[in-house]
Amino acid sequence: MPTDFSFVHFTDTHIMAGGAWDNGQVDTSASLRRVIETINALEPAPAFAIVGGDLTSPDLLDRGRTLASDEWMPSYRLLREVVGGLRCPAHFLLGNHDDRPAFHRVMGDRTTNLDATQHWSFDHGGCHFVGLDSLVPGEPWGEINGPQLEWLAADLRTHRDQPTLVFVHHHPW
After folding, report:
1. Residue 159 above 70 pLDDT?
2. Domains and CATH numbers, the chain
3. In angstroms, rounded to a whole number, what is the distance separating the alpha carbons of residues 73 and 9?
4. Which of 22, 119, 144, 148 is the most exposed place for a label (fewest CB within 10 A)?
C-alpha cells in the first residue's frame, strides 16, 4: 500500500557553462538555482527529484559542429554544483542535448562503461519509479533500444504488484 509522499519533476535545464541560451538572454544556471530554492522551501519537503533530460546544452552555443565529449564536462560540472544545492536526492534522465560519456564522468560512477545507457529504477513509499534513457547521440529524436526494453520488461515483471511510474525524456511515439 503506497504511503503519502511527494516528489518533484523538472526538465530541460539546459545548463551551459560559459554562455547563456537564446542569444545570451537566458541564464539557465540562475534559473535552475531559483527552481532549487523553491523546491527546498516546499513543506513538506519532497522525498526526491527527477530531472528529466536535456540537462546541459553547450551544443546550442556552437551549432556549427559536433562537440567532443570533453567539451560537455564544464556544463555538467556546473549542473552538479547547482543541483548539489537540492536538499533531496536527484535522479537524472538524459535528453538529446546531453552527452552520455561526459555525464558519467562528472555525475555518475566513473568506473562504468561511459557509453552505457542511464536507466534506473527504485522504490519509494510503496511505489516503483523507472527512468529510461532515450538519448540517441547526435540526433534530436530519441529511442529506447532492445537491451533497455528487455531490462524494462524484466523490471516491470519484478514489480508488477506495485503502482509504477515511468519517466523518459522523449515522447513515446
Report:
1. yes
2. 8-167 (3.60.21.10)
3. 23
4. 22
In SS3 terms, the chain reads as CCCCCCCEEECCCCECCCCCHHHHCECHHHHHHHHHHHHHCCCCCCCCEEEECCCECHHHHCCCCCCCHHHHHHHHHHHHHHHCCCCCCEEEECCCCCCHHHHHHHHCCCCCCCCCCCCEEEEECCEEEEECCCCCCCCCCCCCCHHHHHHHHHHHHHCCCCCEEEECCCCCC
* Contact present, 71 and 31 (Cβ < 8 Å): no
Q: Is the pTM of this model over 0.85?
A: yes
Distance CA 77, CA 166 (A): 27
